[in-house]
Amino acid sequence: MTSDRTYHHGDLRRAVLTAALDVIATEGPAALSLRDLARRAGVSHAAPAHHFKDRTGLLTAIATEGYALFADALAGAPDLRERGVAYVRFAATHPAHFQVMFQPDLHHADDPELLAARARATEALRAGVADLPPDGRGKDDRLAGVAAWSLAHGFAALLLSGNLSDAMEGRDPEEAFRSLTALVFTPDNTRDR
After folding, report:
1. What is the C-alpha separation between 21 and 146, in angstroms, rounded?
2. SS3 of 53, please?
3. Residue in 119, 121, 112, 116 with CA at minimum distance from that of residue 94
């Protein structure tokens, strides 16, 4: 019989990640402490370090997982508008991941797994822009991608922070985003002048 705490606990890594996501969602990333997470998971204060080494390692794991989930969410969307809707949906359903993913000072920016997951998500976003007809994206695919990303990310961030409460007037965020894109990305607005 083994006395391995990880085995006895079950999936310690997942338990710590889940507890961390709960803390981030309610109190933000600044409130995160490995010692507190160990207490919540019912293990010794040193146990989380076996999986994450330190707080930054834990946040890197959260960002990596977030980008992987994000890439999966984006990949299922048929066009750029629906990728934007998937972006907003992801932020609403994974607010803790979303907070950490887009704060590079919180994680190890050079982590290979993080870089791979981020590249996959970036490719899914760029594929949506590449699918636009040439007159719908202008002369610069990269700037068209930045415009689409800015719109989706800005909307998602404002939604999560509660800054759209009055403007939304009880509307479904996904439908509101679709309406917003129709206002911004009309043929007259996307052509170079």
Report:
1. 28
2. coil
3. 121
Integer Cα distance of 192 and 137 in angstroms: 9
Contact 92, 159 (CB under 8 A): yes
Does the domain at 1-52 match CATH 1.10.1380? Answer given as no
- H helical segments located in 28-140: 34-41, 47-52, 55-75, 80-93, 95-101, 112-130, 134-137
Q: Enter the CATH code of domain 54-190.
A: 1.10.357.10
Q: How many C-beta atoms lie closer than 10 Å to residue 140's C-beta?
A: 11
Which pTM was predicted?
0.85
Report which of 77, 74, 81 is spatially closest to residue 186, judged by C-alpha positions: 81
**Tens-place pLDDT, residues 73-108:** 999 899 889 999 999 999 999 999 999 999 999 999
